[in-house]
Amino acid sequence: QVQLVESGGGLVQPGGSLRLSCAASGSIFSSYSVGWFRQAPGKEREFVAGITSWTGARTYYTDSVKDRFTISRDNAKNTVYLQMNSLKPEDTAVYYCAVSAVDGTRNVNFFGSWGQGTQVTVSS
Question: Of 4, 42, 56, 107, which has the maximum CB count within 10 A?
Fold first, then answer.
């Protein structure tokens, strides 16, 4: 069983940057695809970015964050990162990471071992 802990959220002005971390326990973390999701108040949890298992050769994003967010993984540190640049107020949400045995999926139902989330607030 993989356990995940997110960190790195905070308050940032529009146009600013944050880097979120998703730290995992368990030696088989590298065998999982990892996704970042977010949930704003009153809205459903939505897919943000994903990275495939092992070397993380493929990354994929929702359209609204393409060219602004970058997902990466460091298997030696059992950690996946989400670098967020050019942040906008609409990026405000609680951000979660989760793992999946299905490479390339964006479907929340195929993800598990959810972390507790980290709050990102973009406001002037």
Answer: 4
> Which DSSP string corresponds to 50-97?
EE-STTT--EEE-GGGTTTEEEEEEGGGTEEEEEE-S--GGG-EEEEE
Q: What is the spatial distance between Cα 117 and Cα 27, in angstroms, rounded to a whole number?
A: 22
* Phi, then psi, of 75 in degrees rounded to 5: -65, -30
Would you say 86 and 15 are in contact if contact means Cβ atoms under 8 Å apart?
Answer: yes
pLDDT band at residue 1, thresholds of 50, 70 and 90? confident
Binning the chain into helix, strand and coil, the percentages to the nearest 5 are 10, 45, 40
